[in-house]
Amino acid sequence: MNTFGLYIKQLRINKRLTQSEAAQLLGKDQQGQYISNIERGQSVPSIEVLKKLCEIYSVQESEMTQEYMNLCHRKVSKKIKSEWERCASSPSGH
Length: 94
Fold this sequence. Notes:
The protein has one domain (about 5-85): lambda repressor-like DNA-binding domains (434 Repressor (Amino-terminal Domain), Orthogonal Bundle), CATH 1.10.260. The chain contains five helices and no strands. The protein starts with a helix and ends in a 5-residue tail after the last helix. Helix 2 (about 20-25) packs across helix 3 (about 35-40). The protein is an all-alpha fold and about 90 residues long.
C-alpha cells in the first residue's frame, strides 16, 4: 500500500482540485499524469515539488517531510529485506 500517495491524494481532494488542476499549479503536464503517478506510487516527487505541494495544499513542510521520510524508510527497508533474503538463499550465503 502506498500511504504517501494516498496522503497526497487526500490533500488534493481536500482542496477540491483535479489531478490536472494540481499538475497545472505545479507547472507540470495539464493532463494530471504527473500527479496520478505520485498518487499511485509510480513516481516519487523531488524536494522542490514537495515544497510546492505544501504551498498548494496549505500543509506544513514538517508534516509533508515526515510523510516523505516514512515513504523513503519503507522503500529502503523493503530493498534491504529483499537483498537479505537474496543473500540468505544463495549457495554461498553472501
